[in-house]
Amino acid sequence: MTTERIILGIESSCDETAAAVVRGDSGCRRREILSNIVFDQMDLHSEFGGVVPEIAARAHAEKLDKAVELALRESTFPLKRMDAIAVTVGPGLIGGLLAGVATAQGLALGAGKPLVAVNHLEGHALTPRLTDGLPYPYLMLLVSGGHCLFLIVRGPGDHERIGTTIDDAPGEAFDKTAKLLNLGYPGGPMVERTAERGDEKRFKLPRPLMDRPGCDVSFSGLKTAVRVHRDQQIAAGGMSEQDVADLCAGFQAAARDLLAEKSRRAMALFRQVEPHAQNPGFAVAGGVAANLALRTELESAASANDFRFLAPPLSLCTDNAAMIAWAGLERFDAGIVEPALPRPRFPIAGNSRNDLWAGKKGAKV
Ligand code: KG4
Ligand code: ZN
User: Fold this and answer.
1) In this structure, are 154 and 300 located in the same domain?
2) Which of 3, 10, 227, 251 has its CA 20 to 30 A from that of 297?
C-alpha cells in the first residue's frame, strides 16, 4: 500500500517555464494533475531560429514565481499542503536550471519541505505512469529536440538505455530541415504540415544505420541529403511550393521509417531482456511524438509485436512540470534522495555515454 502525496513540480531546463501540482500514489491507483502551467518562450526565440540560452535564462527567472503561484492557486492547495517540491536539475541549459533550482530551494527552505531532484528525461520516461498507470517494466522511445533514446524503464532511477542517436536528435533534424526550406521555427510542426501536400517518394532520401544491427539511429546524413536536394533544385531553376512539400514528405518518411524499424528491434531486444513481461507497453514521449505520421507507424509496429502502444496527450509529450512532479512523487516514495544541484549533462541511464550526445541543449545525456 503506497501513500498518497501532493507534489509541486518545477521545470525550466530549456524554453518552457513550467510549474504543476500532481496528486497520486506511486502504485498508480491515484494519479491526478491538479494544475499544469506552461509558459513557452516561442516569441522570444523565433527570430533567432533556435533557443538563445541567455534569453531563456532571463525569461525563466522572470516567470518562475508566477508559474508556481498559478499552479498552486489552480490546484486549490497551498504550499504548506505539499508533501515535497520536485525540480528538474538536468540535463538542460545551465541558466534555466539554476533559476529553477534556486526557486525550488527557496520554496523548500521557506516552507520546510523536502526537495526532490529530478532528471528531465526521467520526467518524460515516467509520463505513461501518470497518464495510464503503465506497469513496470516497459519500453520507451523518447524523441525530442535534444534527445533520442530507447529505454527499458523498470522504476524510478532504474533505466537501461538500449539505443540512442549517434549525432543529431530527431527534433533537431526536423528543425534544421525547416530552416533549410525557410519554413520557420519550431520546424517539426511546419514540416509535418507542409509534408501533407507532398509526395514522399519523389526525392530519394537515405535511411541511415538501417544496415547496422542494434537500435542506434543517425539523422545528420538525412539532413545533409535534404540540403543536397534543395541545392540541386535551386541550381535547376528554384524551389517551387511543390518541391518544398515533396522534400518535407520525403524527409518525414525517412525519419518515420528509421524510427519504426529501430523500434521493432528495440521491442525484440526488450523481449529478450524481459522475457516475463506480459503484454508490455511501448510508450513514446517528447515533442517529436506529436508527429502523426510517426505515431501511426509506431502504433502499428507495436500492435504487430504484441506491445501495448501509449502516447501521452500532446500537452504531456512536450516539456511540462506535471511530469516532473510525478517523477518526483515516485522518487520521494522510493526514498531516492539526490542533491539538487544543476547538471547540464545528466545521463538518465548508467550505461549512457556523455560523449555521444548532442542536441539543441548541447551535449547532454
Ligand atoms: O520535447 P520538446 O518539446 O522539447 C525538447 O526538445 O526537450 O521537443 C521539441 C521538438 C522540436 O524540435 C520540434 O520541432 C519537435 O519537437 N516537434 C515535432 C513536431 N512537433 C514538435 N517534430 C515533428 N513533428 C511534429 N509535429
Ligand atoms: Zn523534454
Assistant:
1) yes
2) 227
> Is 297 found in the same domain as 318?
no
Distance CA 17, CA 68 (A): 10
Residues in contact with ligand 1 (CB, 6 Å cut-off): 14, 144-146, 171, 174-175, 186-189, 192, 286-288, 290-291, 318-319
Q: How far apart are CA 136 and CA 350, in angstroms?
A: 18
Residue 28 CA to ligand 1 centre (angstroms): 28
pTM exceeds 0.85 for this model: yes
Same domain, yes or no: 171 and 49: no
Q: Which of 170, 15, 14 is nearest to 92 (CA)?
A: 14
Q: Which atom of ligand 1 is nearest to the CA of 286?
A: 1
For residues 76 and 153, state if they share a domain: no
Cα R_g (the chain), whole angstroms = 20
Pairwise CA distance, residues 218 & 148, whole Å: 10
Position 46 scores a pLDDT of 74
How far, in Å, is the centroid of ligand 2 from the Cα of 278? Answer: 29
Q: In this predicted model, what pLDDT tens digit does every residue of 79-135 receive, in sequence order?
A: 999 999 999 999 998 999 999 999 999 999 999 999 999 999 999 999 999 999 999
Atom of ligand 1 nearest to the CA of 147: 6
Q: Could you tell me the CATH number of the domain that includes residue 48? A: 3.30.420.40
